[in-house]
Amino acid sequence: GEPIASTSRSLPSQVIILWLLTSITVSRLIILIFVNSDYLLGKKVEDILQLPKREADFNIRMINRDTVIEVSNHKIITWDGSERLVDAIGSPIQNAVGDVEGMVWVIRDITEKLRFEEELIKAAKLESLGILAGGLAHDFNNLLTVIAGNISLARMMSEETNDSSGEFLYEAEKATFQARDLAKQLLTFSRGGEPVKKLVSTTNFLRNSVNFALSGSNISCEFIIPEQLRSVEIDEGRISQVLNNLVINAIQAMPHGGTICVSAGNIDINAGDEEIPLTPGKYVRFAIADQGKGIPEKYRNRIFEPYFTTKENGSGLGLATSQSIIHKHGGYLTYNSRAGEGTVFYVYLPASDQEHEK
Hints:
Elements: H1 2-9, E1 15-20, E2 28-31, H2 37-40, H3 45-48, H4 53-56, E3 69-77, E4 83-94, E5 100-109, H5 111-160, H6 166-188, E6 198-200, H7 202-214, E7 219-224, E8 232-234, H8 236-253, E9 258-269, E10 281-289, H9 318-328, E11 332-338, E12 342-350
Parallel strand pairs: 7-9
Antiparallel strand pairs: 1-2, 1-5, 3-4, 4-5, 6-8, 9-10, 10-12, 11-12
Helix pairs in contact: 5-6, 7-8, 8-9
């Protein structure tokens, strides 16, 4: 009655309250946020909370007026099949003479809170790596410049004298250039690698960057871009690198060919939006979707980690570099992947204050 109603009014919107008139069955629903009420009615509370049997082995005789049951950081599958993390607290309900009639369960959905905390930890890792990588990559790049210059001179001299070492020098020079590209990726992490931004035509830039990355592949591309797409101020080279990394990942996810869908749209981020950890404002969002097998669940929490890769010849810097670039632009890089259905990467970038593209 009124005690439960007053309790429910004092709680924030992301909680659920269940009133149990018996020890095991939900018979009245006070507040319901992320669960369908029809799904809950008549079910056992241990089934709703999906507790292991040893943790769920309680009944009304075991519960006294001082009993409080707590479940922390617990994973449940909701009625629509989605996976959520919750904290749950169960407290007894007493009648007028002090006997326990049931329990009130307060269930708080902490999924987005933990996800946001994970993003902060990832950002801190990248910042620490940037300090180290910046110094190493700078010195490494200087050494490579000297090595590449001397190899180029030796190769030119071998060509003049028809020396057979020319082919070996060519391979050494090519490897040096590849190492220099790797050093440039490492420099992306450094504090000195801030982007040099300029206003660009978002639609033209997106089409040109994606088409260039697809050159020579067996993958087709479908573009879905609105006419009134907001402009962005970006470092074209850096964001092209991000799109190139994402497109290459999509190509590699479809070794037998397929279609990439590239879409874009205007997005407004409002205060209190916990799913997207961005400052409120106007943004442009790119989405790059493939038709691959999806990212295995065991790897999903690690794909943005520097040096993590499942590819035989991968450096593990592609997505980590991309995330760092987007972060330095004041944006956000995330993804959604389902087994057997493919992966979609989303790039959020702050929109320019200038008018829409013509």
